[in-house]
Amino acid sequence: MQVIAIDGPAGSGKSTVGRALAERLGLQYLDTGAMYRGVAFAALRRGVDPADADPVAHLLATLELEVADRTVTVDGVDATIEIRGPEVTRSVSTVAANPAVRAELRSRQREWAERHGGGVIEGRDIGSVVFPDADLKVYLTASPEVRAARRTKEVADLDYETVARDIARRDALDQGREDSPLREAEGSVVVDTSDRSIDEIVDELLRLLAEAVGGSGT
Ligand code: DC
Asked: Which residue segment(s) compose the domain that 88 sits in?
């Protein structure tokens, strides 16, 4: 099973690069941030405070979470649009700091990879914690300005300043939490995506993967 782990902060290009790489390799792609967003969505929908660790963990235990290529379904409800909305975005870092939530989603992510024969998997702790033995570990970065500009384009109704503030707040929470904080995994290749095209980055990653796989003799 071949696993490519892609980590990095919001707006660093993980989804765009990850999807393109998966396509080139004929692998499935998994956005693990969408899983955390799905849990935050479920909590809000059921009137559970996202900061209440035990009730959130409890609801996740029986939650049906389906992250397909472009759609996210939570207990049979299509949540694709809402998980990207401001309410979920505001509360998702709190949900992601909950160790019981992380343990459950880690195990679902590993099951997903087993079921799909590997894949390109993106998030914050994929190379460091979930798949430390991935065939290739990538850490994407970009300047805060570029990241905020990218996200502003994606979300229709928020201005640059608001998005930039939200990204800075989430960076601090994701990097500062105790359980599997966002950081460069050991052995990961760091790529700054600020001034490079997707094709260029994907080509470089394919080359590095070929080297890594060839180098390990597998
Ligand atoms: O990539 P994103 O913005 O959709 O991620 C949403 C949140 O989920 C983000 O603030 C950090 C968290 N997350 C995480 O803690 N671990 C992951 N593997 C993926 C996302």
From this structure: 2-211
